[in-house]
Structures are given as structure tokens and as C-alpha cells.
Amino acid sequence: MTSHPPLDPGASALLTDLYQLTMLKSYYERGMHDTAVFEFFVRKLPGARNFFVAAGLEQVLEFLENLRFTDEELDWLAGRPGFERGFVEQLAQLRFTGDVDALPEGTLYFPHEPILRVAAPIAQAQLVETRIVALLQLGTLIASKAARCVLAAPGKLLVDFGLRRAHGAEAGLLAARAAYLAGFDGTATVLAGKRYGIPLYGTMAHSFIQAHESETGAFLDFARGHPDNTVLLVDTYDTEAGAEKVARIAPQLAREGIRVKAVRLDSGDLAEHARKVRAILDRAGCKDIGIFASGGLDEYELAKLAAAPIGGFGVGTALTTSSDAPGLDCAYKLEEYAGIPRRKRSEGKATWPGRKQVFRVLGADGRLEHDILALHDERQPGTALLQPAMRSGGRLAPALELGAIRAYARAQLAQLPEHLKSLEHAEPAYRVEVTPALRALADEVDRRQRALIESDVPAG
Amino acid sequence: MTSHPPLDPGASALLTDLYQLTMLKSYYERGMHDTAVFEFFVRKLPGARNFFVAAGLEQVLEFLENLRFTDEELDWLAGRPGFERGFVEQLAQLRFTGDVDALPEGTLYFPHEPILRVAAPIAQAQLVETRIVALLQLGTLIASKAARCVLAAPGKLLVDFGLRRAHGAEAGLLAARAAYLAGFDGTATVLAGKRYGIPLYGTMAHSFIQAHESETGAFLDFARGHPDNTVLLVDTYDTEAGAEKVARIAPQLAREGIRVKAVRLDSGDLAEHARKVRAILDRAGCKDIGIFASGGLDEYELAKLAAAPIGGFGVGTALTTSSDAPGLDCAYKLEEYAGIPRRKRSEGKATWPGRKQVFRVLGADGRLEHDILALHDERQPGTALLQPAMRSGGRLAPALELGAIRAYARAQLAQLPEHLKSLEHAEPAYRVEVTPALRALADEVDRRQRALIESDVPAG
After folding, report:
1. What DSSP line would sit under A263-327, residue for residue?
2. Rounded to two decimals, what is the model's pTM?
3. CA B134, B139, B144 angle in degrees (round to 5)?
4. What ipTM does the predicted assembly reach?
5. For B188, which of A17, A203, A211 is closest by C-beta distance?
6. What residues of A are in contact with residue B241 (Cβ under 8 Å)?
7. Do A314 and A292 contact (CB within 8 A), yes or no?
8. A230-241: per-residue pLDDT in tens?
9. Domains of chain B
10. Interchain proximity A327–B327, CB inside 8 Å
11. What is the interface size between A and B, counted as CB pairs within 8 Å?
């Protein structure tokens, strides 16, 4: 039995890779305290995806604001080989005092576009890499998956049912948030409702029906206990037989003042069952009882069910695990140190050097026309997407309401070119131009680095 | 700025689906307090997987031991529609007082075999469903993926590098634990080292090299700062040129008492680079400098690299997202209530009713021969896999040392039939027999339920 509830592991400065700490030790020892500029970007669109939706910035800012090592963590570190007390004492002082520029959550983005830039003393900017990558990857994965579901099921109620298949507590909560942000209507995850104010949905499981000797009895018990939230699960034994029972008890419940809102289907051929169930309900005069469906749904299944008489869907595993793409080829890369642009040249992993900005140009129809990847201080047409979010470790504005982010994301999706709304890989891909000045900088960095590498012949 | 560190969301009783609470309300109102028996199992092996490794039980037991609603959570609930104060007051008393039987962590298992059984008053057994499914799914996914990596790279050092791609804080920590349990040698995740005592690995990122004007200078700085942990990343600009520099500085470092343990490759054709780097190091007399590789690895890549002169691997995204199968078709199903066996009949989702046990029969070679899925009180040949873990809400034994679980898992993998060690889908699948008594019970439950359903004609 623990006497105190355990602390959120996401809040620990030790939720990082060991190499961050070994590098910090060297930076401190060598007096390397200059400003490092890191940018986070995704290298490519996975599978059939045609765009990304940014999410996770709010969690990054919270993490940076609260970054510090606790005494207990420092004591543990000081007992480990390679981490002397002097180094640990420097860690005790570490706070995040840097600047952050980022795409607002809900913004559409594309490969190689930085969505977050950190400029801070190198030790700070380095230490936070692991957590920043994790939060921005997860946010992007789920928000983008949710957006695909929204595009596949226009006008339908969409609810996140995926907590049980999410990879742990934080994944479930952040998935609920990212899905709602990207256009879902709510979640089944109670704690996400409490933390983020997301509308909650949920009624009963098969076990509820099974625990009653009679299915009708279970329906009546539930309806009378939840007169304002009566959705009845009808597929425990036989979907159509279940629907017949609902049709038969609906008038009785109506006399008691209870309206059955919907039945839920959770197995079999959902389109076929929905048509049969609709007919059963309509014949019985229950035209106002809706049909809600769940069970193994993803954006492709939603698209197939577009014509079925189903008003809403619960989406689980595919959403919260981002099943088609559970990870992204993404990176948080050093682009500048001590005022000098840098460029990694590893095969297949080269980056654009320097502080950058993304400009977005809209067409006459108000849709995305193309983006421009530029140096941060270039003047370019269009709107600059990276916005100041934090200066000297302090937020520039309080956290946005999630509802406001959701409205913005909806407007963003409305700006998506029609062919990129496809669930299949779309050609041509969205155009991201690289400015001549950025290309020139990349060449210059290459030349300088090559010269340094060639002259870098150590004493034997 | 938060004045108190945030609490672990995984410890909250509200980390559950709303329908658990709506069902609880009905159970309380109807006075349904009888014992419910739920079992967790996986329906099928995903993709090319041939077995599962059980993991996550320890987290389930911790969760059940500490289950309670806080006053703050109850106040929030009481303000929501449908949750009257009387119900909320009953929730305040809720503790887990039930029994748990489970497969020890590290045990191999197969589809339809229950790996955990909960027997408790129905409200308790129901409420914990969401969290139990999440923890056992995640544990199984990662431990099984890690075991495949171990089978693909016998004798090689394997390190979890995947925190940044894991789906959040808990996923990263539990992935580190599950991977170590299944045979990995360590993790880069510092907090996993602290929490679980897992050996930590890690040295430097490309940014460390880039932040120095000279690659050689970066190597020397790092080696002198970490004389006992000198692994040098050589692919930032040009892998072979990087290795040449290491070869040139190694003698100098040796004179300072510093041994370079290894170089790390992180991009390009790892087998090809490893051969070239090995030759460079050998020519320079640095035969004792090892080669460690990372970058986009999974079990298939590890198998391809078996012959390359690489002594160890960092495995990231594929491991911690369980990339080939980020979710499982698994369930926690009601099999008995108030002493009566139950069976869900939903299409494609039927379950075996009643309390069950899994017996494992070994062949003459000591390998797994077949399993028997039986009623819990049947006598069968072989070893009963489900073991008592908790009685009346209390653990029967303290948590096992992770090292002991790891040794057990290693012994389990050694018992795996040779053809099931394949990374490809293996035929024949492992045989799980269902006893005649269990089949007879299923038939009997079907007959009883059919009779009840047919007589279940509600008043109009």
C-alpha cells in the first residue's frame, strides 16, 4: 500500500535518455553554455497519410515550465557511476530559461516543416529532447488519425473508445485530447473528461446484459437507472432479437418518461445489422431511436459505413494506437549552436540548417496552395506558421481553451485541398518549396563542415 | 507553475470508461453485489507472431491494491448529470476485495488462454476492466516483440532506445520493463533504471558532435568526461572517416588510461558500414573496440545483421510501439456471475464460459508440447499455469524481483518449440486443446441462454 499517490512519471526530469545526462556532464565540464537551436520535424508521411495535424504543444510547454530535478532524483543520480556530486549540484539548478516558437495546435503541416523550435543554453535544449519528441509525435499521430476519421464520416458523431488499447495512462488521456482537438465529439475516458473538459459518452458493456438473467430485464434496469442516457447494447446474443426487445419496451419506457436514445451494435456486419435494426425500429414506430456502432472501426470502415443508417461511431484501437502508423520518422535536430548554423549529414537523415520559418500561401479558393520553408528572418509571401510561444522560460499566453483549438482545427481541415482529403495516398503531394537562401545556407554549412572535417586530423 | 507535482494518471480510479460507472450505478441500485468472474485473454496472434509473453501483472496488482476514489474525484463526479450524491458516496467506500489468479510474468501463452482471472463483487470486477486490459495488452505486446528481437539476435547486447517514440510516459517506462523482462540487456530510459533497476545505457547524440567545431574534439571531450563509458558516435558526417578518427585517438586515450569501448553506427547500410569500420579499427590495432548499431531496427533487421561484426544493438520505435501489431484483439470477459457460467455469443466474439485453467504439457525434449484449456477444477495432465496472486484484495506474495522474472522468461523461451521461434508465421500453430467438460459447459450455457432469450418476451 502506498501512503502517497505516485507522481506522474511524465513530470520527472529523469524521463529522458541516459545520453542526455552524459552529454550534459560534458557540456558543463567544457563550459559549453551557448545557445543551441533545435527544431522538431517529421521526415515523411507514413503509409497513406497526406497531411499532419499538430498537437502536443500544450503538454510540451507545461513540461518546460515545470522542469526541475527533485532532491530525491538528484540523490539517486549522485549514487550512480560517472555522475559526481558536482555535476549533480549543477543539475539541481537547471530550469528551462529558453525560447520556444511553434505551430499552434490544430495546424496542418507537412514533412520537413519544423513545428517547434527551441532556443536555449545547450544543456537545457538537449535534456528536453526525448520528452518533446514523444509528446509531439503522439499528438501528431492521434490528431492526424482522428482527422482522417472525421473526413471519412462527415456529420456523424465520433467518440473515442480506445483507452483500453492505448499504450498506458498518458497515451489514453492524450489520445482523447488529440482526437477531440481534431474533431471527435467526445471520449469514453472519464479522466479525460475531468482533465480536459471533453464531453463523455458511455452506457453499458456486454457483461451488464450477461449479468442479468433476461436481456429485457437488463435493458429496463439500465433505462430506469439512466433515463437521460439510455443507449442499449443489442448484440450480446442476437442483434435483431435484441432490437426487437428494445422496440417492444420503448412504449412502456416512454410512458415512464424515458426516451431510448439509441441502440448500439458492436459485432458482425455493421451495415447489414444497421439496416435490419433500422427496419425493426421503424416498423415499431421507433423512428427516433438512433443507431450507434462500434467494434474494430477505423477510417476505412467508417467510409464504408457512410451510407448505413448509423448516426454515430465509437472508434477504439485504430485511433488510440494509430494502428496504420504507430510511430513517425521524426527528429529534434540541432540546427545552430553559438550562432553558427549546423547540419547533420548522416545518410538519409540530412537536415536543413539554421533557424527556419514556414510560410503558408492560400489559393484564391481559400485552400492551402503551397508552403515555403525559409530562413526565419526571410520575408516571404503567406502566413508565418511558427509563432512565439515561450520567452526566457515563460509562456507568452495562458493555455488556449481546448474548444478554441478544436474550432481552429476544423477551420484548418476545411482549408485542405480536396485531393488531400483522400484516405489513400494522394498525388501530387502538397508542395513545400525551399527558398534559395536556405539552400545557399545548406551549401555553405556543407562547405564549412567539410573543410573542418578534412582538417580535423588528430595527433596520433 | 504547479506547486505540487501532478499525480500519476495511472493511479486514478477515473482512468476508466464512463460505461463502467454507469453500470456500477445500476448494480448498486439493483442490489447486484454477487461475485462476477472475468477472464482476460487474446483472441488471436497478430501478423507473423507465434506466441505471447505475459507481462503487466505486477502493474495490475499495484493498481488493484491501491484502487480508491479520492475526495476530489468524488466531488467532481457528484457534479455530473446522472451521478447522484448517494451513488458517489457508495463509490467512496469502493476498494478491491476480490481474488486474482494469473500467469506469472514471463510465461509463454497462446490465443484463447486466460492469463488473468478476477473474481470479485461485480461492481469492483467491472470497474477495473479498462485498466487491466490496457496494462496486460501493453505488457504482452512489448514483451513479445522484445522476445522476437532476442530470438533474432542471439548473444548480442540489446538495449531499448525507444522512449522518445513510445506513446507517452507510462508506455515508455513499461516498455523498458517489458523488454528487459523478455531478455533485453538494458534501456536508455533513466527513470526506468531508477524505478525498476534496469541497467542503463547511453552516451551521445549527433548534436554533441555538431556542437563541437571538430569531430575529433568532440570524441576527446566525451572520452575524457566519461572514461568508463566511452562509446563514440561516428556517423554524423561520414561513418568511415569518423571511425578513422577514433582509431587515431585511441592510442592517445589509452595512454591517459581511457579505453574506447565501442563506436556507434546509426545510419546507412549498417552491415556494410560495420564491415568497413571493423576493418579500419582492426588495421589500427583497435581489435578491442566494439561496434554498436542503432537506427530503424526491428527483429527482421536484427536477423539480417546476424553475421555483421556488430556486438550490440539499440532498438527503438519498432520495440516500444510494437510496430507490427500496436494493438491486440483481446478481451476481459464475464464468464460467471452469481455462481452461474455465462457466455457472450456476439458474432466472431464468442467466449468459453466459466472459470478456466490452462494446463501445459511438455514433451520429452522439455519443450512445450501442447496446452489444455479446461474448467478450473478439472484434473488434467501438465502444469496449471494460472496461479493464485491475490485473495480478498491482498497480494499473496511480495512483488518478484525483475531479474528473477527475466531469468524465468529466458527459461520459458528455451522451451519454445523450434519452429515457433521463427520470425515468420509458423505452421502448425501451437496446439491448445479444449476439454470435453468445457465444451459440454459451453453447450449447456448456450441451451440455457437460448431458452431464457426465447422466453424473454417483454410486456408491450
Report:
1. EEE-SS-HHHHHHHHHHHHHHTT-TT-EEEEESS--HHHHHHTTTSS--EEEE-HHHHTTTT-SS
2. 0.97
3. 135
4. 0.96
5. A17
6. 453
7. yes
8. 999 999 999 999
9. 9-142+326-455 (3.20.140.10), 153-320 (3.20.20.70)
10. no
11. 407
